[in-house]
Every structure is written in structure tokens, then in C-alpha cells.
Amino acid sequence: MEAYDYIIIGGGSAGCALARGLTDDPQNKVLMLEAGPHANKFWVRTPAGMAKLYFNKLRNWNFYTEPMTMLKDRRMYWPRGKTLGGSSSINGMIFIRGHPGDFDGWRDRGCPGWGYEEVLPYFKQMEHFERGGDPAYRGTGGPLWISDPVIKMKSSEDFIEAATRLQIPLTEDMNGEVHDGVGFMQHTIRHGRRHSAYNAFVEPVLGRANLTVQTDSSVERILFEGREAVGVEILYKGQRRIIQAAREVILSAGSLKSPQLLMVSGVGPEEELRKHGIEVRHELPGVGKNLQDHFYVHTGWRATPDSSYNINITGLRKYWEGFKYLMTHKGFLALGSSQVAAFIKAKPEESYADLQISFRPMTFNYFPNGEVRVESFPGLGVSVFQLRPTATGAVTLASAKASDRPLMTPNFLTTSYDAETMIAGIHKIRQIMSTEPIRSRVVSEEVPGPHVKTEDDIYRYMEVTGNSAQHHTSTCKMGRDELAVVDERLRVHGLGRLRVVDASIMPFVTSGNTNAPTIMIGVKAADMIRQDATPRRPLPPS
């Protein structure tokens, strides 16, 4: 019989950090199961390769939402990483921790141990910030490499200058003491190559005798004896296998798959389970509820030739850039998805920023065949998303099978507050882009375009083009209220030997891109699980 102390379901951002931390104790025998293939491919390691991975059929779950009532009944594409490293292997590599108020808010909503002062040591422990920074807030020597853009475009500097002229303060390090303001972003890029959670946490310790990493392994359900998780049933190379857990089963499958796996295993809202003929193992109403995401709207600007690097990565010049990258791991192919972020308030009475504006000195388009193509003219892209949405959605089941995709209903723009906040964000983008020195670089506003003037016009533009920032969280939320799924130790309420460790446990989404706090959750969870040291249960004879 195959058995391990800990079985981690999911080799993504949190799962990789968790596997590293648990195997730091040589007494822990750990299995990490990943549904997708290995991540050791050229386009995964190349930062510009994110465009090749956006619609990739092999390393991406390629999810779609249900039709969205407030967005013309559109079904929205939601890419999710399906490979070692999870979404950290296909994302834009942006590293933003979130505002200290986010974590203090978690603590104050019934999650002791998750305030900013308590999570800060884990953020510091997990990172190697290339330029050092203030040691009170930043870490060096950790597994995950954090760097500044290898090329800082002059147009990016002009965007920052224009924002400061509008009284948006400059921040030298949005992951340091001051989060709100405008400044250059940081990225999970090491020496010009993507540094995913797998590259950072697992790849260096693959030789550990107490760590087994198994790819192409789809978990069908969690197995229970009474009120305790005792193992998993998986599908591996066409064969069903049972694997026993002597200590714990840990779900790290992400905010869309973790609630689905709980439900198909009989844990979740009773009505939802019975609808699909699933035996109710344990009723837990909050599983799949409280889905949160950052609603995202893009604007595009035609610019002067020296303002954009579109020209460098299209036509014949892209071959030179490719050669330069192969030889040096430098150049435009070594850049993350956005260069600059501005964290601002939609209204002065907000306690801290509730909008994130992102600037990139390039533009691209998606095509129905799955191609992502850089535009041929010099372009600047500026996007905005709301950091603290008031609307929540849900993940539900299409069937009782884990292999069928879950149903995702985000409920974007279903509150007037969210819509008003996003409209304010579009106005703020236009205000910055019409302020010197960035104004002199703008030839014209391409999208939404000058014909989109009134708030009704902007709302109609958002209906048709608004998208997800792919920051899905909170579907197995931590806390003590009626919708909480896990406690502050990430143990599933009412069940033993079962935890959830990924972005789904966030009580609410953080203020910024969510990969950094997701990795932190994995690092902190490993510490807690080692401290708790669940006793080994007797295993049946093989």
C-alpha cells in the first residue's frame, strides 16, 4: 500500500511552498500531486512566454465562467496554471504582497495570527529581494527571487512623474513600508528567467528522500474514515490508485479546484451535493461561496515611437530580440507583464487604496484562435481593477466528477458601488494620461476611445470588454462565521486531518496581484503544520 505522512493536492504556488516547508523536517514523508505536466519548458522559463501560455491546452486549465448577467451574458475566459508551479508558471510574474490593512482585516474578522505583523516575517523569509531594500520589511537569502524590471522605459518614468503631479505619492517599494502610491513594480524573475514557486521552492530540493513529486495525477476524491481524511483516490496514467495519508491530506488545488474537490468528496452545501447525487459526508455551507476576484478594464493609447517597445518585439526586430535573449537572458523578452502600478483611492474617505492602475509600455490583442499578438504600432496599455469588490460569486458543480470543470459565477458589477468605483478608475487613467510628461507621448486614445464620454458610455464599455485579473480567492474562506470553511490553522471545520492551503482561504481578496500572498500562505501553513504535528494514524497492512 502506498502511504505518506502528508499528501498535498496541487503543485501550485502554495503547494510548492508548503512541500518545501514540510520536508524541511526529514521525519515528514511528503507527496505532492500535480494534475498537469512538468514545467521545465523554454516558454515557461522565458518571461515573454506568458503570451504563449495564456491559451495553452497542456499547461492551462482553460476555464470559462458561466454567462454573466451584468456583462451581456458573456462567458469570461479564466486561465489557471496546470503544471508544476501552478499559475506562478504562466502568470505575469508581478509580485505585490498587498496592503498591511488587508491582513489586519483578516485578523479582525476572526483569524488570529494573520495580522500584518504576524505575516510579515513569512514574506521576508520566503524572498530574496535583489536590491535589498529596508530590512525591516524586505528579505534577502530566501528561496523566491524578486527583481526590478531589467529595462525601465522612459515612458514608464513619465507615467510616474505625471501621477506624482496629480498628488499621487511616489513609493520606492510598494512591498515595503509604503504600499499606496505610484512606482515601478517588482517581478518573480531571476537573471532574466521566470522564477516560479516550483523553481524557487521545490526544484532545489528534488533530491530530498522525503519528498515525492508526481505530475499528471488527477485527484478524483478525498477518502475518509468517519470524520477524518485518510487518503486520496487518483487517476494516474489511466489507472485508479489509492494513496493513504498517515497524518494529513492538504488541499492546495486553488480557489476553483479546491472547493470542487471538497464537494465531490461529500463536503459542502447539502443542497448542492444532493443535486448531483453525492453522499453528504459533512455539511459545510461556505464551500464554494464568497468567490472574489478583481474586475479588470483595459485602456490603450497610440504613442510616439520611442514610448513603446511594440516595435522591438514585432516584425524582423523580434528575431534580434530573441537572439539577444538566448545569448544573455536580457532585453525585452526578460520583462514582466507591467512596469508601473499606482495604488489610489476612488474616494477620499477610503481608508487605503481601492484601485490599482497598471501601466505597460506595450500593447497586444487576443484572437479567437488563441493567439496573443503584439500590436504593430507604438502603443501604451493602462488598466485598472478594483481592489476590494463588494460583490461575491460562487463555485458550484457541473457534475459529481472531479474531471468535469466546475461552474464559476463571479457576479461582476452586480453592486452599484463596484461599478462606480471602476468608472472612477477609468476617469483617473484619463487624468494621468492627459498630464505632462506622459501627455506628450500620447498620439491618441485608441480604447475606449474619445467617443466614450459619459458614465453610461464607460459602463457599456465595461460590459463588453471588462475582464478578470485572474485573482480568484476566498472560496474556502478562513474564519469563524457561518460561511467559514477553515479555521485560523487552516483546518477544515468539523473534520480531522484535512486542511486547505491556497488562495481560497483568504477571507477577502488582497489589494494587488495575489501570487505573493498565496505563496506566503504556503510558507506560513508549513510552519503551523509542523508545530501542530498531527499524530500518525495506524495504517492498514499492505
Record field, number of beta strands:
26
Shape: globular
Biggest sheet character = 7 strands, mixed
CATH topology of the domain at 150-184 and 295-386 and 413-465: Cholesterol Oxidase, domain 2
Q: Summarize the amount of helix as a percent range.
A: 10-25%
* CATH structural class of the domain at 150-184 and 295-386 and 413-465: Alpha Beta
Question: Which band does the percent of strand residues land in?
Answer: 15-25%
Model description:
The protein is α/β, with parallel strands linked by helices. The relative contact order is 0.19. The strands form 8 sheets. Strands 1, 2, 10, 11, 12, 13 and 26 form a 7-stranded mixed beta sheet that branches. It has a domain at 150-184 and 295-386 and 413-465: 2-Layer Sandwich (Cholesterol Oxidase, domain 2), CATH 3.30.410.40. The mean pLDDT is 96. The chain contains 13 helices and 26 strands.
Question: How is this fold's topology laid out?
Answer:
Layout: E1 2-9, H1 13-23, E2 30-33, H2 42-45, H3 50-53, E3 63-64, E4 77-78, H4 100-108, H5 116-126, E5 127-129, E6 144-146, H6 154-165, E7 181-184, E8 189-190, E9 193-194, H7 197-202, E10 211-214, E11 217-225, E12 228-236, E13 239-251, H8 254-264, E14 267-268, H9 270-275, E15 282-283, E16 295-303, H10 317-328, E17 340-344, E18 355-360, E19 364-366, E20 372-374, E21 379-386, E22 394-396, E23 407-409, H11 416-433, E24 442-447, H12 455-465, E25 467-468, E26 498-500, H13 515-532
Parallel strand pairs: 1-2, 1-13, 2-10, 5-6, 13-26, 14-15
Antiparallel strand pairs: 3-4, 7-17, 8-9, 11-12, 12-13, 16-21, 16-24, 16-25, 17-18, 18-21, 19-20, 22-23
Helix pairs in contact: 1-13, 5-13
